[in-house]
Design brief:
Aminopeptidase, 35% helix
């Protein structure tokens, strides 16, 4: 059984190297994300061929009443999702984890583009899917993301992908004297947190703690805090990560001061420039549910040419059908109370 021994330094290093170099890797499939989510349990499984790892999956374990659990491979697995045989072999490695923790199901939501063929492949194989035609409020994460692809662009040509209004907004913020800095300091995390809290209160969104953001900063060496300011006023802040060539715009906020200066636009432009500088291939603005809301409009101003990236959604391997059906009636109600996407 290829269950990662977390105490074996050599095996952990080999596992990490595979996940971080894989084109199917994601910051949420890194072991470090499981350490950030320390209110969940975690296990990591993998497959080998000729002594080399060919597939991997980091599993979060949410304990439920009665000693049961839900397994969740956030943005996993790390392999070609269209290779169903490979995925099923990897999931078989997780059977021991499911048995040990009395799992009701294992949920995974890969960064894989939706297609009717992929949907049918998993539906016909017996998986339960929450996808294109289902209630999007049932999803843990939005199924559609706004991703700006950076390949073959510099800081000037990338602006051709922005909307005309987006370009004008950025240039306007520069002319007004909005400035942007970055660091990894506790001081700037505290300043960022104030912008995040102000945004959350303005939009009636549940907040995370400042300690949570410090934990992300501490786990990921390529995490940065960006602060937009004008004169002595803090206008906006953001937490972004360069994960081995994939940039993630994770959390952001803005104060109620000088909002007409559009600090979030110029701040994102500076983060995009960082991505180009380090050779990142994409800048992920995160998801959205409605095309009519302000969050979508903001993200589209950067991704005007690339548009929305539509993922397959959630795929569930069910271990206990009766209890799974019970949970499927309760979970949607819980998710309706969850916060909206929190960038902005």
């Amino acid at each position: 059984m290829a269950l990662l021994d977390k105490l074996n330094t050599a095996d952990v290093r080999r596992y990490d190297e595979f996940v971080r170099s894989s084109p199917y890797g994601s910051m949420m499939q890194d072991r470090l994300w499981a350490e950030v989510k320390d209110d969940w349990g975690n296990e990591h499984v993998y497959l080998e061929q000729d002594g080399e790892i060919i597939a991997a999956m980091s599993i979060l374990i949410k304990r439920l009443p009665g000693g049961f659990s839900m397994l969740y491979a956030t943005r996993g697995p790390v392999c070609d999702i269209t290779d169903l045989t490979l995925v099923q072999r990897l999931l078989k490695e997780a059977d021991s984890v499911a048995k040990k923790h009395k799992a009701i199901m294992l949920k995974f939501d890969p960064e894989a583009a939706y297609s009717d063929e992929l949907y049918d492949l998993y539906k016909n194989a017996g998986f339960q899917l929450t996808s294109k035609d289902d209630d999007q409020e049932k999803l843990i994460q939005p199924r559609k993301n706004m991703i700006l692809f950076l390949d073959d662009h510099d800081e000037e040509t990338i602006m051709t992908k922005f909307s005309k209004k987006g370009r004008s907004t950025i240039r306007g913020a520069i002319k007004k004297g909005v400035q942007v800095r970055y660091s990894r300091s506790d001081e700037d995390i505290e300043l960022f947190y104030e912008t995040y809290r102000a945004m959350s209160e303005r939009n009636n969104i549940t907040t995370r703690s400042v300690e949570y953001f410090k934990k992300i900063r501490d786990k990921y060496e390529e995490a940065r805090i960006y602060i937009a300011y004008h004169e002595d006023d803090i206008l906006a802040g953001a937490l972004t990560i360069n994960y081995h060539g994939k940039m993630y715009y994770l959390y952001a906020g803005s104060t109620n001061v000088k909002r007409n200066m559009n600090p979030n636009h110029i701040m994102n432009y500076e983060m995009i420039k960082w991505g180009i500088e380090v050779g990142a291939t994409q800048y992920d603005f995160g998801g959205f549910f409605e095309v009519s809301d302000g969050l979508y409009i903001f993200k589209k101003s950067f991704c005007d040419k690339d548009g929305a990236t539509e993922y397959i959604g959630e795929l569930d391997k069910v271990y206990k059908p009766f209890m799974y059906n019970v949970l499927e009636k309760v979970i949607p109600m819980v998710k309706r109370l969850r916060k909206k996407p929190s960038q902005g």
